[in-house]
Amino acid sequence: MSKICIKIGGNALKDDRRLEAFLSVFSNVMQPGDQWLMVHGGGPVIAGVLDQYKVPHEFIGGHRKTDAEAIRLVEMALSGAMNGRLVRGLLQHGIKAVGLTGMDGAMARSEKRWHHDEQGTRHDLGQVGDIRGVDTSLLLTLLEKGFLPVVAPLALAPDFTAHNVNADMFAAHVAAALPVDELILLTDVEGFYRDINDPASLMEHIRLDRDKKAIWHTLQGGMIPKLEAAEIALKNGVRQVRILNGARPASLTEWRDGRAGGTLITGE
Fold first, then answer.
1. What is the pLDDT of residues 20-35, one digit of tens each?
2. CATH among 3.10.310.10, 1.10.287.130, 3.40.50.300, 3.40.1160.10 for 3-266
3. Rounded Cα gap, residues 92 and 178, in angstroms
4. Domain regions of the chain by residue span
């Protein structure tokens, strides 16, 4: 029996066609006896809601700046629209899914995150958090009863307000706390590249102790927290991390069948 955490990004969920394609493949990938945990993002939906309410937003270092006005809408998008839609779809495919956020049962506690750029300047990200503790008791109870927890990346701040947490980082901390055997991060590209302009330069296997410095300069946007998330997971009990293309659901089938795919990340 394996424990697997999969993080699905908002791009794979932003329309019914993409969601159904993912769910059809995912329901066939699950093997009897395995325990799965799902963490989801919601970038495009969050951006749409913020635009609808004319709330400015930007990304700094791969993290969405979230002020007090924006956090209310982020909560609405993640725990309402995104989580509910995903859980309903999983139930339709015969999967016993339960929707949660990291605040339920005080599962995930966080502290304020600050971003430091290459010049050493500190940037205030607002109500964005770094995970500082995970209580797995609720998750383990659900897993042992055969449920699939579907968790939105919101964490409990020290003042009991919500912190928006990057979904990759959230998944890494939860995966490490359980711990799981493998963390799968779905994104909209095949994996990490030595040259982002050359599809043939896909790195099939990254060893963090050997390759991290070599590829760091090639990373942009959302791929930065993915590498950070992989490092957190691997240093805290997760055996391996894999980056797969969530825009191509067949990549999950290839992974299940042992045909590799994407980028495998190990500690050494």
1. 999 999 999 998 889 9
2. 3.40.1160.10
3. 27
4. 3-266
